[in-house]
Specification:
- The protein has 541 residues and is of the alpha/beta class.
- It folds into 3 domains: 206 residues, 3-Layer(bba) Sandwich (FAD/NAD(P)-binding domain); 143 residues, D-Amino Acid Oxidase, Chain A, domain 2 (2-Layer Sandwich); 144 residues, no CATH class.
- Helices cover 38% and strands 20% of the residues.
- Strands 4, 5, 11, 12, 13, 14, 15, 16 and 21 form a 9-stranded mixed sheet that branches. Strands 1, 2, 7, 8, 9, 10, 18 and 19 form an 8-stranded mixed sheet that branches. It has a two-stranded antiparallel sheet with strand order 3-6.
- α2 runs parallel beside α12 and α13 runs parallel beside α15.
- The radius of gyration is 23 Å and the shape is globular.
- The two termini are 42 Å apart.
Length: 541
C-alpha cells in the first residue's frame, strides 16, 4: 500500500527528530524514517554555546519546552535528570610529548583553558546520544510525527510533485510518496546514493582517522597531574583535548562516570603506528607512547568495542534540490576538533524550519531561492570549518602555534554568541556559521592556514621562535575588531574565563554603547528572557 506525506525525513538523530517535530507543529504531515531503532549509540556528543542558543530559539519559537530546558546543564538537571549528560564548562587543551610525562610548569605549562560559561548552571553539556536522540524521537512521536523504525530504503524516484521512496519496513514491502524529502541520516546517506550526488572530498584540506569508544574508570587529569594552577573552571569538566604528535585525543566525561574518548590521527601520524585494523591495538600503542595518558586511561575499561575508522571526512557537491535537502552531517563532515557538529546541525534545523514556515500557507514547499541559499550557505560553511580545522592540525606542531590558531576559532564563536544574545535579530539563523559572511573573519581562516604552512613546511616543522611569535602577533591583530572575549592576551597565560569586564570595555566592537551592554548583561548571566516557558509545556509569545 502506498503511503503519502508532505515531508519525509530520513534519519532520526536529534536533528531529524527535532525538525520533524517543528514541521508537525507548523501543520505539515511528516513521516520520520529510521533504519535501525532507539536507543542506539552515536558519536558527536559535545554541545557549545551556539548550539544551545539554537536549541533555545527553537524551543521558544515553536513551543518545544524540552529544547529550551536542555540548553543548559542546570535546566537539564532540573527537568530531565534521567537523560544522561556531562558538565561542559569549556575547552581544555594539553600538549603531550612521546615518552614524557606532561610537564607541570605552573602558568607556563603547555595548557589552554577557554571557558564557555560563567558557572555550572549555565554550562554546556556533553550529550549521551543514546539517551538524547531517543528522547527527541519519543517527543516527536508524542507530537504527532509518524515515526517508523527498521525501515530499509532501497530506491527513490523523482516523480511529478514529489519523490517516491521504496524499501522494506520490518522486512515488509514499504512505499512512500512525499512532496519533499530531507536526508538527516549521515555520511553516505540515502539521497546521496539515490540521486548519485558526486563527492567533493578533494575540496577539503583536513584528513584524519579515528579510534574511539566509551570507557569506565578514566582518572581525572587533576589526579594524574596534581598541582596545576587553578583555571577558570575544573580542567576535567570540559571538552578535554590532548594534543600529541600523531594528532589529538578527545575526552568527554559524563556525570555518571563514563568517558567518551577517541584519538584523531593525521595521515602522517597514522603512518607511524602499527599497520593494523584493530582499534584495540592502535589504542594500546598510542597510550604506550604517552605516559600521562597511560596513567589516565590505563585502568579504564571499554564499555563498548574500540572502533577504528581509516577516514572520517566526507563531502558532497550538492546539498539541496527542488524536492529535497540534506542536513549538514549528510552533506559534509570534517573533524570533531572544535565541536562544531551539533551547533551546525541545529542551525540547519532552524533554517529549514523557517523555509517551511514561510511557505506553510502558500505552496507548502520551500521556495527554490531559499533552497539555493541553503545550499550555498552550507557549502561556504563546510569550507570554513575545514580551513579552521586544517590550520589547527598544522599548528599542532608547536603549542604556541596551536594556542594562537585556537584564538581564531574562539574569537569567532564568542563574538557570534555575544552578538546573538545581546542584539536580537529575527534572521539570526541565516547568519553564516564560523564567520561565514563576515568580511573580516571569513578570509582569516584561509590566510591563517597559508601562514601556518609556510612555518611548518606542510610536514610538521615547528618553525623558529620569531616565526611562531610573528604568527601569534598577526593573529591577535587580525581578530582584534571582533575580540570581545579578551583572547590572544599573553598576560592571561592561556587561561581565559568568561570576562564581563572586558566585554563592557569593548562595547564598541558590538556597535553598542557601554550602558546598553551593561543593561543587556542579564541575558549572559542566565536571567530568563521575558517570554519564556512557565508551565514547562508552552511558550508565551
Amino acid at each position: 500500500m502506498m503511503q503519502t506525506c508532505e515531508v519525509a525525513i530520513v534519519g532520526s538523530g536529534f536533528a531529524g527528530s527535532i525538525l520533524a517535530r517543528v514541521l508537525t507543529a507548523l501543520g505539515y504531515d511528516v513521516v520520520l524514517l529510521e533504519r535501525g531503532s532507539h536507543p542506539r549509540f552515536a558519536i558527536g556528543e559535545s554541545s557549545t554555546p551556539l548550539a544551545n542558543l539554537s536549541l533555545e530559539r527553537l524551543g521558544l519559537r515553536y513551543g518545544l519546552a524540552d529544547c529550551y530546558h536542555l540548553a543548559t546543564h542546570g535546566r537539564w538537571l532540573a527537568r530531565f535528570p534521567e537523560l544522561r549528560r556531562g558538565l561542559k564548562r569549556g575547552f581544555t587543551f594539553y600538549r603531550h610529548h612521546p615518552t614524557q610525562e606532561f610537564a607541570n610548569r605552573g602558568l607556563d605549562s603547555e595548557r589552554l583553558l577557554v571557558a564557555a560559561s560563567p558557572h555550572d548552571a549555565l554550562s554546556d553539556t556533553h550529550w549521551l546520544r543514546a539517551d538524547v536522540d531517543h528522547h527527541f524521537v519519543r517527543a516527536a512521536s508524542a507530537a504527532g510525527v509518524n515515526y517508523r523504525e527498521r525501515v530499509d530504503l532501497t530506491s527513490s524516484q523523482l516523480v511529478p510533485n514529489g519523490m517516491h521512496l521504496s524499501g522494506t519496513a520490518n522486512h515488509i514491502p514499504f512505499e512512500l510518496r512525499a512532496n519533499f524529502v530531507i536526508d538527516a541520516s549521515g555520511p553516505g546517506g540515502f539521497l546521496a546514493k539515490q540521486l548519485s550526488i558526486p563527492a567533493a572530498l578533494e575540496r577539503t584540506q583536513t584528513r584524519s582517522a579515528v579510534v574511539f569508544s566509551h570507557f569506565d574508570g578514566v582518572h581525572l587529569m587533576s589526579d594524574v597531574v596534581p598541582g596545576l594552577p587553578n583555571g577558570p573552571y575544573p580542567d576535567d569538566w570540559a571538552a578535554v583535548h590532548h594534543l600529541i604528535d600523531e594528532g589529538w585525543m578527545y575526552s568527554l566525561r559524563f556525570d555518571d562516570g563514563v568517558t567518551s574518548a577517541g584519538f584523531l590521527l593525521s595521515p602522517r601520524g597514522l603512518a607511524t603506528l602499527p599497520a593494523t585494523a584493530s582499534g584495540t591495538a592502535l589504542w594500546s600503542a598510542l597510550l604506550n607512547r604517552y605516559p600521562t595518558l597511560a596513567n589516565a586511561f590505563g585502568d579504564a575499561r571499554p564499555v563498548l568495542p574500540i572502533v577504528f575508522r581509516q577516514r572520517i571526512q566526507h563531502r558532497l557537491t550538492r546539498a539541496a534540490g527542488q524536492r529535497w535537502a540534506l542536513m549538514p552531517h549528510a552533506f559534509a563532515f570534517i573533524d570533531p576538533l572544535f565541536s562544531t557538529g551539533i551547533a551546525w546541525s541545529l542551525r540547519a534545523v532552524e533554517r529549514l524550519a523557517l523555509a517551511f514556515e514561510s511557505s506553510a500557507n502558500r505552496r507548502r514547499l520551500p521556495d527554490p531561492q531559499v533552497l539555493t541559499r541553503y545550499e550555498s550557505t552550507l557549502t561556504a560553511e563546510a569550507d570554513q570549518i575545514d580551513l579552521v580545522v586544517a590550520g589547527a592540525y598544522e599548528a599542532m606542531s608547536h603549542f604556541d602555534l596551536f594556542a594562537a590558531q585556537a584564538a581564531l576559532y574562539f574569537g569567532t564563536v564568542s563574538f557570534a554568541e555575544v552578538s546573538q544574545r545581546l542584539i536580537p535579530d529575527e534572521h539570526v539563523a541565516w547568519r553564516g556559521f564560523l564567520g561565514v559572511g563576515d568580511p573580516l573573519l571569513q578570509p582569516l581562516a584561509r590566510e591563517s592556514l597559508a601562514r601556518l604552512r609556510q612555518i611548518t613546511n606542510g610536514r610538521g616543522d615547528a618553525g623558529t621562535t620569531p616565526e611562531r611569535s610573528g604568527f601569534a602577533q598577526w593573529l591577535a591583530a587580525a581578530i582584534s575588531p571582533r575580540n570581545v572575549a579578551g583572547l590572544a592576551d599573553p598576560s592571561r597565560k592561556n587561561l581565559y574565563p568568561v570576562d564581563f569586564d572586558t566585554l563592557i570595555e569593548r562595547h564598541a566592537l558590538l556597535g553598542m554603547s557601554r550602558d546598553s551592554v551593561i543593561e543587556a548583561l542579564p541575558s549572559l548571566r542566565g536571567m530568563a528572557p521575558s517570554s519564556v516557558f512557565t508551565t514547562g509545556e508552552h511558550v508565551s509569545t
